[in-house]
Amino acid sequence: MTNILILGGDGYLGWPTAMYLSQKGYEVTVVDNYFRRKCCLELNIEALYQNFNLVERAKIWYELTGKEIKVVLGDLREPEIMHSLFNGKVNYSWCIDLKYKGVPESVIHYAEQPSAPYSLISQGNSEFTLTNNLKVTHNLIWSVKEFSKETHIIKLGTMGEYGTPNIDIEEGWLDINHKGRSHKFLYPRQAGSIYHTSKIMDTDLLWYAVRMWGITVTDLMQGPVYGYKTEESEIDERLNTIFNYDDIFGTVINRFVVQAVSGIPLTVYGKGGQTRGYLNINDTLQCIHQAIKVPAKKGDLRIFNQIMETFTVNEIAEKISSVGTKIGYDVKVNSIENPRKELESHYYNPTYQGLIDIGVKPHYLDEKAIKDLFQTVEKYKNNIRKDSILPRVKW
Ligand code: USQ
């Protein structure tokens, strides 16, 4: 059995990834400091439904499947805690089998503050985002260098690192010809938030560690994710992942479905021509799994664009309103002043073939996927807090 370590294992993507890999027979350890839970409390944000804490989820998973997901509760900004995951001195908060199983073959790094609006609430939130995200990545590269050079780092990056340039977006790299000579560089990056900027800096740290220390990395440039249901969460709803629909942690497709169900006009920011690459949560899981199965070459920084299709915000609003109308909702779409500084009409042509080439089979945002989301949201309709829908953070 292969050891997999998931940093940020309590999050929207971390927990479903843990169950998915555990179900497939991997030996999974998850680490988290409950940042997201504490932060939701502080900001008075509630997810669509309650979530059991990580230890309880791991116990439920074990009871239902007989498979163990080991849990470490700790702050990965502490170098000693990160080191302990690689040098055999780990302190589990919950596990069945205490025997140390050796270094992880792959580490999935999700342990970051993931919200652009959060990073721009105040200077303090901006500083937290930079220091948290960079410290964790920094500790990770040092731990791998010192204790576990063979471990493959799979890092969640973001398509937002590229911004919206007026040329095609390649998968991570660009060949530059300059005065008759040529060289391959990281694709130019220009992010639209402090959060996205922290991810650019992460990539730079990883690239440094690959060049100087020969470690092995896959950096996944992911677009906004939608959905919550996975094969494993279907086993028991107590295993559901967190579903945020608020203005800070909710991503646009999940938010629009909640708005449609609760009778709030869909909040299209500005002209709605902003184009992004999107993916179903099930495809995040597949991408991570394929990246484990087909690792990057030793000593290489491999970059994939992790999206399955592109849409403008207006196209998303149109899709959700059309499905919502079919199932009996009176869905209105409202263009509101854009709280963000971003182009509202622009060229966008990213390449996203690499993950398909290593075996990922995309899901698409079709009528069935949207209906599924409506069904979930309807079930928890009474929990929707209408006061956390409109954007409060401006930049
Ligand atoms: N948008 C609206 N109305 C809303 C919410 C969003 O028009 O009510 C627009 C935004 O202005 C933006 C687009 O929808 O143009 C996507 O916004 P989002 O909030 O779904 O996603 P974003 O803030 O970009 O961040 C999310 C995740 C982040 C990830 C990123 C990928 O929170 O962790 O890195 O998606 S990407 O967008 O490709 O950079």
Layout of SSEs?
Blueprint: E1 3-7, H1 14-23, E2 27-32, H2 35-42, H3 54-65, E3 69-73, H4 79-84, E4 106-109, H5 116-119, H6 123-147, E5 152-158, E6 173-178, E7 181-186, H7 194-213, E8 216-222, E9 225-226, H8 252-261, E10 266-269, E11 275-280, H9 281-293, E12 301-306, E13 309-312, H10 313-326, E14 333-336, H11 354-357, H12 367-379
This protein binds sulfoquinovose-uridine-C1,5'-diphosphate.
What does this protein look like?
It is a single chain. With 395 residues, this protein is α/β, with parallel strands linked by helices. It has 12 helices and 14 strands. The chain has helices at residues 14-23, 35-42, 54-65, 79-84, 116-119, 123-147, 194-213, 252-261, 281-293, 313-326, 354-357, 367-379, and strands at 3-7, 27-32, 69-73, 106-109, 152-158, 173-178, 181-186, 216-222, 225-226, 266-269, 275-280, 301-306, 309-312, 333-336. The strands form 4 sheets. A 7-stranded parallel β-sheet has the order 3-2-1-4-5-8-12, with helices on both faces. It has a 3-stranded mixed β-sheet with strand order 9-11-13. Strands 6-7 form a two-stranded antiparallel ribbon. A hairpin with a 2-residue loop joins strand 6 (173-178) and strand 7. Helix 8 runs parallel beside helix 10 (313-326). The longest helix is centred in the middle third of the chain and has 25 residues, at 123-147. The chain is globular and about 55 Å long. It starts with a strand and ends in a 16-residue tail after the last helix. It binds sulfoquinovose-uridine-C1,5'-diphosphate. Sulfoquinovose-uridine-C1,5'-diphosphate binds next to helix 8 and strand 10.
